[in-house]
Sequence to fold (628 residues):
Amino acid sequence: MEETMSILEVHDVSIRYMTGDFKDIGLKEYVMRKLKGEYRINEFWADRNVTFSLEKGDMLGIIGTNGAGKSTLLKAISGIMEPTGGWVKREGNVAALLELASGFDGELTVRENTYLRGAMLGYTRKFMDETYDQIIEFAELKEFQDRPFKQLSSGMKSRLAFSIASLVQPDILILDEVLSVGDGAFRKKSEAKMREIIQGGATTILVSHSVQQVRELCNKVLWLEKGEQVAFGETGILCDLYQRFLDKKITLQQAKDTWERLNQHYDYLIVGAGLYGATFAREATDHGKKCLVIDKRPHIGGNVYCEEIEGITVHKYGAHIFHTDRKDIWEYVNRFVRFLPYTHKVAAKNGEQAYSMPFNMHTFQQMWGVTTPEEAKAKIKEQRKEIPKPANLEEQAISLVGKDIYETLIKGYTEKQWGRPCKTLPASIIQRIPLRFECDDRYFTDEYQGIPEGGYNRLVEKLLEGSTVITSLSYQKLIAAFPNVAGKIIYSGAIDQFFDYSLGRLEYRSLQFEEEVIEEPDFQGQAVVNYCDEETPYTRIIEHKHFAGQQSRKTVITREYPEDWRPGKEPYYPINDERNMEVYRKYLELAKDYPNIIFGGRLGEYRYYDMDDVIAAALEMARTAIKE
Fold:
């Protein structure tokens, strides 16, 4: 294997400035103070212990706030300044575009300054004669070439300097904010010129305050802050960390800690900090495994994430009620947080009329006025239509519960949920419709039901204790920078995205949430009310304080609007029709070529999971994987 040679090495470089007040006090006072030992010289370290190396063709972006030491470091790299400590090793010729508009004579003409600057850069007279027209044309100064340089605007001066300096093809090109010269059109032209030089094989170093520019142009990043090296590495992750630092979402120390953690090796990389990933991490950590858990969202918890608003625990991604018939799963989650007893009840509205859900004797009385189970059964039998092979969801529903229940409580809600008419939906979506001929309006009949005290965040935090957790980080960016960060990967993201949609996109339904704080203690009297009419654009309203019986003078509600999923939206409900399941099975075949990657969870397995089921699946997978 051919060894890659570094074209530039910067090793432990430190640059110190010495400052005093000699100019202010004069020679006599300076001598007197020196003799008395009263003269003090102050040290200022512009850069300390900076180390990195670049290969041929690399483009390095140097980022950092004002006073970070970026421009000073460039002077040491270009050879203008000798470092106080450390060393710089360069291979090939260096072209440095620093302080573009400096070094010109304001009294000379543009033409004269062009030749003067060319001579300063080492260009011959013959070379300047041959390229002069090209320089002036690129700088867009044809009408100004015989005017005094001092009459030019600052943008014009920078354009001329850039045009002269970018004539040659160096081995190492150093740029200090030069891609921001001129107006928008010239900036595009200068960026294109730089790309041309870079594509010619030049190793390039760019200092820029534009994070976006660094993202687009650079493959490596050096982050300096107050003269200290924060990090050096792959562009995507470091630009994200730097932007979050600028936005005051993280501190400098948090950024350093994150980078340090990423430079370690783990037994498991767990993609997704929801219930599946967090449960697997808990089990792996308890068995002595070192886990890195990442999530592209800025928080842990996945869809069960909660926030405190007006003293109320708000379920940010829809109502989540924990319910299970499995004693072992109930005892497992109660190891980490106490669950408050909660029995979920739902009302359904169509127009001004409210109905009890799921369908029970309260519902039948509200709809038809019947009071006995026999009357209700007779009414439903009368309404049902015998359809031997229902062709769509509408026919299936009418064959199961009849026209009134279908049109009042199923049709409008379902069409909003799926974004298409019931006549076009497959009958398989509704296999059965439970009918309770008793006054039991519990939405779930599981033996164990509840809401974690303080919200689901506490549960997930406990599950993740002992793991390294990094949020706002996608799998793609992490692996691009650290392809060998872990021995095995637990991937609970979308399986089609993992394979870059190579076999086509799997389809989902998505949701939009609209929160509102209402200046009254109670809005609807219960946690969830469904809206089953076609005219109301949302499917339900959640009033969060009722989940845990919280008391407040205000209340917080969330309206849910179903919508089609598209890239950039969060996928919530897999559309498990024949076409999508065929695509999913093909992705499963591809996954067999990745024995060190386990796909799990709602998106990894392309299936809807209740919370108890997803925890059970993660526990089973953890036991199998850790045993192996």
User: Anything to note?
Assistant: The two ends are 33 Å apart (CA to CA). The CA atoms of residues 357 and 528 lie 10 Å apart.
